[in-house]
Amino acid sequence: MALVLNPEGPLADWLAEVDAWLERSPGFFGGKPVVLDVAGLELDKVALPILIRDLAARDIRIMGIENADPRLAGPDIPPFLNGGRSASFLGTPAPVPETKPATPATPTANALVIEAPVRSGQSIVFPEGDVTILGSIGSGAEVIAGGSIHIYGTLRGRAMAGAYGNARARIFCRKLEAELIAIDGLYKIADEIEPQLRKKPVQAWLENETMKITLLD
Asked: Which residues contact 29 (CB under 8 A, 6 or more apart)?
């Protein structure tokens, strides 16, 4: 499950409240995916990265951002998400992230190939195009791609395709056990993924701003 933080101004006072909470519940956010909802805040290209760094310093790792000005998007900013759009299912077969490649990777002009599993806690960020994982993505790991994501093993962590404004991106995996999947900001968490898709080979894509998921033959 993803936690949602809703900062309120002034940010210095809100961060003080976060510090007080963490004193009462140390490690509460540690290792958990967090979505930052910045609705109502006036943030610019300087203030938003500072807020993300302030949260990272408190061991609060931002997975994505909701309700932000699209002009603030960039490769150093977590992907913008939108959980408000609808999602449907096809029932028949058919801290600022840091790039930490799990193994030596082979980049091309528009693709990145990772030749082994992405382990828990690792983050692969490739804004330029597609990412192919020859192994699995472990629980607590994430892959963020500007294009499509191809996973030849099990997806247990988080996969975010089309993360910088590509609605044509897709996600393919051999076995779906994901914590979260997202395409162009539309995301579904584990509890929202239909049981009949779990542990099966699937593909996901967007059609008319609706996420569709189907089993692969």
From this structure: 3, 22, 58, 59, 60, 61
- pTM for the full predicted model: 0.61
Task: For residue 109, give both structure tokens.
Answer: 């002009």
Task: Note the CATH architecture for domain 105-215.
Answer: 3 Solenoid (2.160)
- What is the sign of the dihedral through the CA atoms of 183, 184, 190 and 195? negative
Q: Rounded to the nearest 10 degrees, how much is the dihedral formed by the CA atoms of 10, 54, 47, 169?
A: -120
| CATH H superfamily, domain 3-78 | ACT domain (3.30.70.260)
Residue pair 118/157 in contact (Cβ under 8 Å)? The answer is: yes
Rounded distance between C-alpha atoms, residue 142 and residue 210, angstroms: 22
Structural domain spans, the chain? 3-78, 105-215
Q: What percent of the chain has pLDDT over 70?
A: 82
